[in-house]
Automatic annotation (TrEMBL):
The lineage of its organism: Bacteria, Bacillati, Bacillota, Bacilli, Bacillales. It comes from Paenibacillus peoriae. This is RsfA family transcriptional regulator. The keyword Coiled coil applies. The keyword NADP does not apply. Keywords: Coiled coil. Residues 143-170 form a coiled coil.
Length: 198
């Protein structure tokens, strides 16, 4: 992104850049990732574009243009989720943290020395710990996502401020030229009027 203090226009988006940005965001949608991560990846691929610029381009132009593709990407995401969902064996709680061989061996060992009720209590406790750990991990990921979103919005805001500044300068130039033209026209009219009278 160009420095806010300098009046440098961002080059117009090319068809190739639009295609790269669109492909990346659609990929993130279809895999269940976030658009923010897509904007970050796109800014890495498109060296002259910030994640804020990618976000602005996507939301202001490409999202409408690729409406059907977005619907298809979301369908892929939903179908992948349904295929990837596994129902664990409730006897061993494999769907809730008791997943690898060593953990199952521990369960078998506990069954030898404890009553089934006690084993279930221990497994429920481990399951709760696993759920809490998963919750903290999700919260951490959510906070990182929000930080990235704030950063992206700040960049997008800077892009908009720069565009606004350029428009204001263009308007000032236009107003100055219009005023000069008006004055020049009035001067010519005055001279021609005097000549006609004389």
């Amino acid at each position: 992104m160009s420095d806010n203090g300098s009046r440098k226009r961002e080059p117009i988006w090319s068809d190739t850049e639009d295609m790269i940005l669109g492909d990346i965001i659609l990929k993130h949608i279809s895999t269940g990732s976030t658009q923010l991560k897509g904007f970050t990846e796109a800014s890495d691929r498109l060296v002259s574009r910030t994640s804020g610029a990618c976000s602005f381009r996507w939301n202001s132009f490409l999202r409408k243009k690729l409406k059907n593709e977005i619907i298809e990407a979301r369908k892929k995401k939903n179908s992948s989720k349904s295929r990837g969902h596994k129902i664990g064996n409730p006897q061993f709680y494999t769907a809730s943290g008791i997943q690898n061989t060593s953990e199952l061996s521990t369960v078998y060992h506990l069954e030898q020395v404890l009553s089934p009720e006690k084993v279930k209590t221990v497994i429920d406790y481990v399951q709760d710990l696993s759920s809490i750990h998963s919750l903290f991990r999700d919260l951490h990921a959510s906070l990182e996502e929000k930080d990235l979103e704030i950063s992206c919005l700040k960049e997008e805001n800077q892009e908009l401020l720069l565009r606004n500044k350029i428009l204001e300068e263009d308007w000032q130039e236009f107003s100055t030229l219009a005023e000069r033209f008006k004055q020049r026209g009035n001067g010519q009219f005055t001279s021609s009027t005097k000549n006609a009278i004389m």
